[in-house]
Amino acid sequence: MTVTPLRYGLEEADATIVETIGGRLLACDPPGGARVVEVFGDAATADHIAVIVPGNGQHLGNYFTSQEAHSPRSRGQLLLRTMQELAPESRSAVVVWVGYHAPPEWYNAITNDAAYAGASDLAALTHYLPRAAHITLVGHSYGSTVAGLALASARAEDCVALGSPGMGVVHRSELGSGTRLWAGYGESDRIRLIPHVRLGRLGLGRDPLHPELGATSFGTGDIPGHCGYYTEGSESLLNVARIALGRYDEVTPAGVTTRIPARAARAARTAQTAREVETAA
């Protein structure tokens, strides 16, 4: 699959930015295309940036119209809000990267063609983000395959795989070096039943928890099915936010449930109110 590379860079984006509800576009295909990249928060000044990479069925055509709680935009906004609640003193941003031609349905996702085609664009994005920022790739389902293939040339301190059907690779050396690999699987997620193999362009590679890849497993709590990893207040979402903030000692194993500290939540709401008042003034 050959596609035209996306063009993005914070300097260019600031000059030609397109305002959207709650976020800013960093890149977008023309109408009728498939790809869109949006940022929530100020990526140019952020200390921590999470890059969400969704799985199959996501594209420009449904990106702004989907009302589902597990839509990429909703997940991006919720992850940013959770990061701000956990660490109101830090500057955080979330990039929602639908920057590849995702397979339309799960049965189209048996090959890694789309993942290979998109991986270089995802890696390129990480090199345009501020060098001082802590960057975390968060891939859900087929999106984790894209993220895994991007790591060979991406700049990321952490990579989180949620409900991964495979990281696109067979050996740890294919993931580059210096990136911490994390994995979360819900108890009711049937993705576990998919064979983790790769034969040329067939199959999606090894499970991130395979000893050869050596990901660190974290708890997800009682989340529903394959699409519940961003459930508000869930252990899964909290752990993703903790990793994205570099608060590794707070990441919990399976079976442990915690909630956002009330003091941190109140502080985040107070800070948001102050910003809104200042903007209105």
From TrEMBL:
GO MF terms, alphabetically ordered: hydrolase activity
Lineage top rank: taxon: Bacteria
Pfam family membership, one: Abhydrolase_8
Hydrolase among keywords: yes
InterPro entries: AB_hydrolase_fold (IPR029058), DUF1023 (IPR010427)
Residues annotated as domain DUF1023: 29-197
Keywords for the protein's UniProt record, in alphabetical order: Hydrolase
Protein name stated in the entry: Alpha/beta hydrolase family protein
